[in-house]
């Protein structure tokens, strides 16, 4: 029973994180190049992937794997961009 509750928490987190990311973007509180926006997207997508495959609902699972990959690539781009504009200081 506890495992089922945890599964649902993970799935609902995923849904909430993606909705929160979208709402914050639409209301101008975050931009697409904001790492928080992309972290909400990648973790939310992974939460939906988890619950989708757990329930054998493969279409939303595949969609969210792609969503997570896109957000992951964006995170890498944001990190690399910040390293270029603000190089690491020597110790």
From TrEMBL:
Record's keyword terms, sorted: Membrane, Transmembrane, Transmembrane helix
Residues spanning the membrane: 12-29, 35-53, 65-84
Annotated CBU-0592-like domain residues: 8-79
UniProt-listed InterPro entries: CBU_0592-like
Pfam families: CBU_0592
NCBIfam families, alphabetized: CBU_0592_membra
Protein name according to UniProt: CBU-0592-like domain-containing protein
Organism per entry: Candidatus Kerfeldbacteria bacterium RIFCSPHIGHO2_02_FULL_42_14
């Amino acid at each position: 029973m506890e495992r089922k509750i945890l599964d649902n928490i993970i799935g609902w987190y995923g849904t909430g994180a993606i909705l929160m990311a979208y709402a914050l973007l639409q209301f101008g509180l975050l931009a697409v190049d904001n790492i928080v926006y992309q972290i909400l997207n990648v973790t939310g997508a992974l939460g939906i992937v988890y619950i989708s495959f757990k329930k054998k609902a493969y279409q939303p699972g595949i969609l969210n794997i792609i969503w997570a990959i896109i957000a992951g690539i964006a995170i890498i781009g944001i990190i690399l961009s910040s390293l270029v504009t603000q190089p690491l200081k020597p110790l």
